[in-house]
């Protein structure tokens, strides 16, 4: 039975991916930090899904996470690095602590989670990073968030080459506007969401399940010859001039 670890898997895209992979026969572990989200996913996902509270920005907690996953699964076939925070602000208003927190979670945390998971990864396994269209398409107030996600994209080719001798594939998914709890957390009103949807060629937000399908593909044998690539799941957003 294949195994998957989803960092940031209690809500939105991460949770949808956990549900999809479990339905397709994976043993699944998910991480998160929010107590309410952890309790909800613990009660709503199947009993055999491993739910672990872990802060991706704290390396000691990542060490503890890998010990738990190793004891439960023994090894990993798919690592989905999906944890992230977004704190939009104009560049003149970005505070140092906000900058550091986004770097620590979105880049440093993902980097060292990958490093610490590698001893558990089976040869021929798959690593998927969540990047996002903001790394390529500008948005006012997104300088730090875009930079941290763009850092993941910049290291993608080097990671793919470095892990190729083990046949571990490293790819990314870049969601566009996706209907997740993020917009509620940011307080985006419905009219703001409608305006965003109007700029998407498909005229709507994506669903977490649509992004999950891309992750599942990258983790499957169907993508066995795909590495170093970024799949954009954004309904055509960013294609026009």
From TrEMBL:
Belongs to the short-chain dehydrogenases/reductases (SDR) family. It holds the Pfam family adh_short_C2. The keyword Oxidoreductase applies. One of its GO terms (molecular function) is oxidoreductase activity. Keywords: Oxidoreductase. The keyword Oxidoreductase applies. This is SDR family oxidoreductase.
